[in-house]
Amino acid sequence: MGAAADRRFLSLALALGRRGLGRTWPNPSVGCVIVRDGRIVGRGWTAPGGRPHAEPQALAQAGEAARGATAYVSLEPCAHHGKTPPCTEALIAAGIARVVAPLADTDPRVAGQGFERLRWAGIEVSTGLLGEEAARDHAGFFLRNELGRPLVTLKLASSFDGRIATATGDSRWITGAEARRAVHAMRMRHDAVMVGAGTARADDPSLTVRDMGATRQPVRIVVSRRLDLPLMSRLARTAKEVPVWLCHGPDADPALHRTWADLGARLFACDVAGGHLDPRSVLGALGEAGLTRVFCEGGGALAASLLNADLVDTLIGMTAGVAIGAEGQPALGALGLARLAEAPRFDLAEARPLGGDVMHVWERSRT
């Protein structure tokens, strides 16, 4: 098989893996394509909840045609026994002759051992192709393995002058329907949607994916030091239907803790720093609970704390062509900067119109 064919089939495996983003945590979302004599005989991607894995699904579809075939996998096949047998064993047993994967798994239970076992079994292993693309797809899984925290995408929808509401709190709707639909698609590709207590109180959000055919909703997270949240809110009323996780401080009222737990919420005690919940402690707790990708939608204080702590990996702006003025509510809380050189900076990755608005995507700066 030539280099062009390898790239084409591995690109398909990566695309299949992206189908599961937001629905496979704590496992990575992997895609697999089985090819024999230039023809696809099997394909699969990680199922919701993380099992079954991509490889056994693709092998089951291929059947006997897998013998002597090439498996294109978007991440190193697992080599450890968990709730299911290792994917390396399945590939070996099926008679796969060659495996093409972009990069190694950073999970210490795998970390190159999958490739090594395949080679021991006489299977040719090719790595490195489309490595950067795969690293982006698996960034949340890798961050949790290496730093103990999930990837954070911060989305800010604002007016042209960076306001999220008028002085009276009127904010619906600054951006249009197309931008809002795009946000729902982004929510669906993340494990969880997170907001601060002020946003939860002011907007009474549901934080669900709507009108997208979603079969699995993201976890809904509120960061609230004192748990002083409305007990008749949409989140409270639906906590037993769609997961609600609350990150709080050690000084939260025990009675409110019990009430929210009875409503169905899961609660995480986090450290306090500077009078506010420490964002590192919050993300550490979420990572320990299994999350790999978190989509933060504000408000301003939470967004500022994440930026100040250098915990934002992707910054997405939805900017409308409307001006609100200095009396409006800013998209970001105070950052306490004395010099421009201290400001968080990101590299522009994408900019495009969405209806009457502009979406701009910025990635963590490499400089």
From TrEMBL:
Swiss-Prot/TrEMBL keywords: Hydrolase, Metal-binding, Multifunctional enzyme, NADP, Oxidoreductase, Riboflavin biosynthesis, Zinc
Catalytic activity entry: 2,5-diamino-6-hydroxy-4-(5-phosphoribosylamino)-pyrimidine + H2O + H(+) = 5-amino-6-(5-phospho-D-ribosylamino)uracil + NH4(+); 5-amino-6-(5-phospho-D-ribitylamino)uracil + NADP(+) = 5-amino-6-(5-phospho-D-ribosylamino)uracil + NADPH + H(+)
SUPFAM superfamilies linked to this entry: Cytidine deaminase-like, Dihydrofolate reductase-like
Gene Ontology biological-process entries: riboflavin biosynthetic process
Binding site for Zn(2+): H53, C78, C87
EC number annotated for this UniProt entry: 3.5.4.26, 1.1.1.193
CC cofactor note: Binds 1 zinc ion.
Gene Ontology terms for molecular function: 5-amino-6-(5-phosphoribosylamino)uracil reductase activity; diaminohydroxyphosphoribosylaminopyrimidine deaminase activity; NADP binding; zinc ion binding
Domain CMP/dCMP-type deaminase: 4-126
Pfam families in alphabetical order: dCMP_cyt_deam_1, RibD_C
CDD domains named among the record's database cross-references: Riboflavin_deaminase-reductase
Swiss-Prot/TrEMBL cofactor(s): Zn(2+)
Active-site positions on this chain: E55
Pathway: Cofactor biosynthesis; riboflavin biosynthesis; 5-amino-6-(D-ribitylamino)uracil from GTP: step 3/4; Cofactor biosynthesis; riboflavin biosynthesis; 5-amino-6-(D-ribitylamino)uracil from GTP: step 2/4
Stored PANTHER family: 2,5-DIAMINO-6-RIBOSYLAMINO-4(3H)-PYRIMIDINONE 5'-PHOSPHATE REDUCTASE, DIHYDROFOLATE REDUCTASE FAMILY PROTEIN (AFU_ORTHOLOGUE AFUA_8G06820)
Function per UniProt: Converts 2,5-diamino-6-(ribosylamino)-4(3h)-pyrimidinone 5'-phosphate into 5-amino-6-(ribosylamino)-2,4(1h,3h)-pyrimidinedione 5'-phosphate.
NCBIfam families tied to this protein: eubact_ribD, ribD_Cterm
Protein name: Riboflavin biosynthesis protein RibD
Native species: Pseudooceanicola batsensis (strain ATCC BAA-863 / DSM 15984 / KCTC 12145 / HTCC2597) (Oceanicola batsensis)
